[in-house]
Amino acid sequence: MTQENVLYAHSTHWVKYIPKTAIYSLIGFLSIGLMLLAFQIDATFPLVSLALYLVGSVLFLLCHHLLFHLYLSEQMIDIIITNQRIIYYNDCLFTCDDEHEIPLSRIAGVEMQQHGLLQNILNYGILWFDTGGSSLDMKRSIPHVAHPDDVAEIINTQLRL
Amino acid sequence: MTPAAILAIGILLSSALFCALTLHEFRKVSMRREKLLNALGSDQGGTVRSRYALSVAYGITSLLWTMLIVVGLLQIAS
What we know:
The structure holds 2 protein chains of 2 kinds.
Chain A: E1 6-10, H1 18-40, H2 46-74, E2 79-82, E3 85-92, E4 96-103, E5 109-113, H3 116-121, E6 124-130, E7 141-146, H4 148-160
Antiparallel strand pairs in A: 1-2, 2-3, 3-4, 5-6, 6-7
Helix pairs in contact in A: 1-2
Chain B: H1 3-39, H2 45-77
């Protein structure tokens, strides 16, 4: 039996951070606004000011923790391709810890999908593995793969050996 | 102890607790991943460095924001 070696080990494309980062940043700036407003009206409406400050600070801290939770969850290497198998992790700290493993011997072909302007400009896409099933099973696909053509080439080269 | 001080302690403790739990979980999961990659003969020097950098950044910013917010709360309440 041949020794198992890593051919490719990377994290998925950074575009995965954008939607949640935008939402958390927006709420974060809004909460900073609430806290500043609380300081402005402190002399005239002390109770309202305290309530506003509390809401703002809790929202801000929540956004800060959720943002780092996202970065820590997504920063890890989640695509590993060896000369024997493909391992893909889908994890989110505390809530999800999925591991998908496909032996190369079961793969008949690899398809790369890059749809839309953003995916083509930023060069990321979906890798789908044909394992002989009749339908397009999305469990056999990896989203947000950076440079999917290069990754598909690595797998195809290995399949041809 | 004033209600504002109790709230401040509550915010401080819950923020620190969430930070510590997240860092612990992150360390557990990333160590498992590194162990697998090391077993497969892949060098993980860069990943380990970025893991530490991210953990330290999270710890420091959490402490900083929480302290600032607590100081602001005590100032508004006084």
